[in-house]
Write a structure and sequence with these properties.
This protein is an alpha+beta fold. It contains 14 helices and 30 strands.
Length: about 575
């Protein structure tokens, strides 16, 4: 077939490449525009996610700095940074964000900076005490060109921030009045040996504060534990003598206190070693190496309180008996027995910790048997009062203080506030006799019975009845020990101010209350005679004699208990340091 002129035309068209680029451009332009639109949308989504992550980080940091109101802190941060009002997702919900309505999940928990744990396991949601917040944000991304082709994607971001606020605080009681003889006998009974300090020595110890970390530095040298951490020192054991010696060698200890502590260290004969972590709990501060000090946190303790707490731990739950003789005004003689139990869950009396940390005193029992001087024993009508005794039993349950909050409203140390929930121990006082074998056994309650309060002689005509027994008992309880909230501001902390909580007004004499409620009865000691009529004469005389010694007995009981860091119906709380750690991003 002959194409003629068309053949040459087709050949020239096939060889002519002019205009090919325009054709190719026209064909590929739609694809290029689509790819460009996709790239713009992708870049925009990347930028949008990065901005969302930055705001999520900021929200987590703000929430961790406001642990008491994390939800408000997160929502305020989102709003301040241009986010529309977000819906807060609860743990049992699965909400989906919509256009203009992001979803945020806020979970409090505990973060532990443990290098040996996987990063994803260092935060435990819901764990207490909470020191961290995880904020998860989900929002719809914006598509500028692809909205008609696909559903807008969901952008998800998450951040965890933690804070390390800590406080150093203690629970105990102050001495009302220093009685050197009683304190010497008590300490000697607790740790053995020969301890003889003056009132001036004890006043020096009461007035002195010890830096706990410096004390542990000195103790570590004595225990050959240099080069470790404070936690390693607290994991060891020491005698009361070693503790007193280390306190004496602590920098800043005054000369009078130093000499008193050296005398105790030399005189303490007990070789019982106490676990130091039952005495002090340093919490996170324990991870510091020896010689280091936590920034902005002072850890101080009363020298006298630390000494008596160590002595009590060294004694364990054994019984200490003291023969006081006639040293108490109005008494012809007295014997005092003291039994000290372990604090519940081995809680120390001083701790450094975060929210939720608890310190406690020890459960304590005291038995005082006092013989009262009768004086003029003739009651008239042939009745003679031969003897009067006051068998007094006191039991005080542990008092406790719990750290409930640490805040720094402005972020500066001068705005710091520490909140403590404190509860004094329930106390019971009895005039009665008890089984001596169960006195030091704190695993079960004591059993009580009527005690022999007095002995009477009656002369009836030619018959004299000697040793008529006057028996009786009384009890009173200090109850209503609901927790009381104590707030320590910066001025209180700097001054190391002591604040007291009380179950009720205990300034009145509890012993007087007992004596006035005393129920008495007279027995003829097996003779079968009815001598009930004698009570009208005998009871007023006995009550008068007992009331005459209640004031010195109260002072004795209160000071013995206070020397052990305990008081009837009251507890003293002191915060010696606090730091509001900066909230930091951890994941």
């Amino acid at each position: 077939m002959q194409l003629g002129p068309w053949t040459s035309i087709l050949r020239r068209a096939a060889g002519d490449r002019r205009g090919n680029f325009a054709v190719m451009t026209a064909v590929s332009m739609p694809f290029a525009i689509a790819l460009s639109a996709f790239a713009v949308d992708l870049g925009s989504l990347y930028t949008e996610r990065r901005e969302a992550q930055s705001i999520t980080d900021l929200a987590a940091i703000t929430a961790a700095a406001n642990m008491s109101n994390v939800e408000a802190a997160v929502l305020a941060t989102l709003g301040d940074n241009g986010f529309p009002p977000a819906t807060v997702q609860q743990p049992d919900q699965a909400l989906k964000p919509t256009k203009g309505k992001p979803v945020v999940e806020i979970i409090k928990g505990r973060y532990v900076a443990d290098a040996t744990a996987a990063i994803g396991k260092r935060f435990e949601a819901g764990a207490e005490p909470a020191n961290a917040v995880r904020v998860s944000l989900r929002k719809t991304g914006n598509l500028y060109f692809g909205a008609s082709l696909m559903e807008e994607p969901i952008i998800g971001t998450s951040a965890i921030a933690s804070t390390s606020s800590q406080a150093a605080f203690s629970v105990g009681s102050r001495l009302l009045k220093v009685d050197g003889g009683i304190l010497n006998a008590l300490l000697q009974g607790l740790v053995g040996g020969n301890i003889s300090l003056s009132v001036m020595d004890y006043n020096a110890l009461i007035a002195a504060d010890v830096n706990v970390l410096s004390f542990l530095d000195a103790l570590a040298v004595d225990l050959n534990l240099t080069g470790g951490t404070y936690s390693q020192v607290l994991a060891s054991q020491a005698t009361v003598g070693q503790i007193a010696k280390a306190m004496a060698n602590t920098a800043g200890m005054g000369q009078s206190g130093k000499l008193a502590l050296q005398a105790i260290a030399a005189g303490a004969a007990s070789t019982v070693k106490i676990p130091l972590n039952h005495l002090v709990d340093l919490g996170p501060v324990g991870r510091l190496g020896l010689g280091q000090q936590p920034a902005g946190l002072s850890v101080d303790a009363s020298a006298m309180s630390m000494l008596t707490a160590a002595a009590a731990l060294a004694n364990g739950s054994h019984q200490v008996e003291l023969a006081l003789g006639a040293t108490i005004p109005g008494l012809a003689g007295a014997t005092l027995a003291v039994a000290i139990g372990e604090p519940e869950q081995f809680s120390p009396w001083l701790a450094v910790g975060e929210k939720g940390t608890v310190v406690r005193t020890a459960q304590t029992r005291i038995k005082l048997v006092a013989t009262v001087g009768v004086g003029n024993s003739n009651l008239g009508g042939g009745i003679e009062l031969l003897s009067v005794k006051l068998p007094l039993h006191v039991e005080v349950a542990h008092a406790e203080a719990k750290l409930t909050d640490i805040t720094c409203s402005t972020g500066r140390p001068d705005s710091r506030k520490v909140t403590i929930s404190a509860r004094p121990g329930i106390a019971s006082l009895r005039i009665a006799d008890a089984d001596a074998t169960g006195f030091a056994d704190f695993s079960k309650p004591q059993s009580f019975r009527d005690a022999a309060i007095a002995e009477v002689s009656v002369k009836l005509l030619l018959l004299t009845l000697d040793l008529l027994g006057v028996n009786g008992s009384a009890s009173v309880a200090v109850t209503n020990n609901n927790p009381t909230t104590l707030v320590f501001d910066n001025a209180d902390i700097l001054a190391k101010k002591i604040k007291t909580v009380s179950t009720r007004n205990v300034t009145q004499s509890l012993t007087t209350s007992l004596v006035n409620d005393l129920s008495l009865k007279v027995s003829a000691l097996g003779l079968g005679l009815d001598v009930t009529a004698l009570l009208g004469t005998v009871k007023p005389a006995v009550i008068t004699l007992l009331n005459g010694v209640t004031a010195p007995v109260d002072t004795l009981l209160y000071n013995v208990l206070a020397a052990l860091g305990i008081k009837v119906g009251e507890a003293d709380v002191r915060v010696t340091g606090a730091s509001c750690g900066r909230s930091v991003l951890v994941q």
